[in-house]
Design brief:
Layout lengths: L2 H15 L10 E3 L5 E3 L4 E5 L5 E5 L12 H13 L8 E3 L2 H4 L13 E3 H9 L4 H12 L2 H14 L22 H14 L2 H6 L3 E4 L2 E4 L11 E9 L3 E10 L2 E10 L2 H18 L7 H5 L15
Antiparallel strand pairs: 1-2, 3-4, 3-11, 5-6, 7-8, 9-10, 10-11
Helix pairs in contact: 2-5, 2-7, 4-5, 5-6
């Protein structure tokens, strides 16, 4: 039996034997001090280290995933690297088709050769659509064949509410997923391929004399956040996947359909703080007694979509 499958079964057993965490279904967090904190995102899910639901709001609603699609692109790339079918240092030639993928892009030019590890950073950190297309073509010959692999892997992982139509997440009416599926995909990606944690925890990389950077306040506050993937389209709103470690425990959170980038980060911070208190990893502090205040405006994101 695959180790991750065994872990999933043990987590399910633990969820039955251990007392469940508090679960909210109405978009409001039941606070320890009697106050309730509302979350405005369309769909939210927070899982604890045993895979139990700490908070859920419309977690099974199918929604456009935007660039969270790239989590599956990274999964399949990591799978091929582990199996020896691809190498981090190998050069990948960018096709004309890949170079024309709509923004956000790294600006890869047709015919140029790019190291595969740069494409991975472009997907994980810069959320670059041209990098995702070039990676898909290298791994499967063309994007259509890669999408078939994506959907086959989704079925294998039990992602019943997920359908992929491209490797990058640009809008397509047939491309849908759920907060629950995306949480499961994130858990499997981090468990099956631990190096992906480093990729999704990266904030900068350099290619061809240019530094690509993303500025995400969650990496520093509330602490413990080690992996993040964001996504945005007008159709989807602002989407976010976060994995945080605190006191030897892992929390995975998915936020879909936030109205703004800053609001998605603010609500993720609220929810993580609540989770840390709920599991005894963090005592209630003055902020939770007084209620949450909106933080100052974060630094403008330069590349992440």
């Amino acid at each position: 039996m695959h180790p991750s499958h065994l872990l999933a079964q043990l987590a399910a057993l633990a969820a039955l034997l251990l007392p469940p965490s508090a679960v909210a279904q109405d978009g409001r967090i039941p606070s320890l001090n009697g106050r309730r904190v509302a979350l405005s995102a369309d769909s939210v899910l927070l899982l604890d280290t045993y895979g139990r639901t700490v908070y859920a709001k419309n977690a099974d609603d199918e929604r456009p995933p935007a660039s969270l699609v790239k989590l599956m692109t990274l999964y399949l790339a990591s799978e091929d690297i582990q199996r020896g079918k691809a190498d981090l240092e190998e050069p990948v030639q960018v096709s004309h088709y890949a170079s024309l993928t709509p923004k956000y892009r790294m600006g890869l030019r047709s015919g140029t050769w790019v190291p595969l590890h740069v494409l991975l950073d472009g997907v994980a950190i810069a959320s670059a659509n041209d990098a995702a297309t070039a990676l898909a073509e290298r791994l499967a010959g063309d994007e259509a064949a890669f999408v078939e692999r994506m959907n086959a892997k989704a079925r294998e992982l039990g992602l019943a509410g997920t359908r992929f139509t491209n490797a990058h997440g640009l809008p397509d009416p047939g491309q849908r997923s759920t907060a629950r599926d995306l949480a499961q995909l994130t858990i499997r990606l981090l468990e099956d391929y631990p190096a992906s944690r480093t990729m999704l925890g990266g904030q900068t990389f350099v290619y061809n004399g240019r530094m690509y950077a993303r500025h995400i306040p969650l990496f520093n506050d509330p602490g413990g956040v080690q992996a993040i993937k964001t996504g945005f389209t007008r159709e989807a709103g602002y989407n976010l996947v976060v994995s945080a470690w605190r006191g030897g425990q892992q929390f995975v959170m998915v936020v879909l359909g936030s109205r703004s980038r800053s609001l998605s980060f603010l609500e993720a911070k609220k929810l993580l703080h609540y989770a840390f208190i709920e599991t005894g990893l963090e005592p209630p502090d003055e902020r939770s007694r007084q209620g949450w205040r909106r933080p100052g405006r974060p630094r403008r994101e330069t590349i992440e979509r």
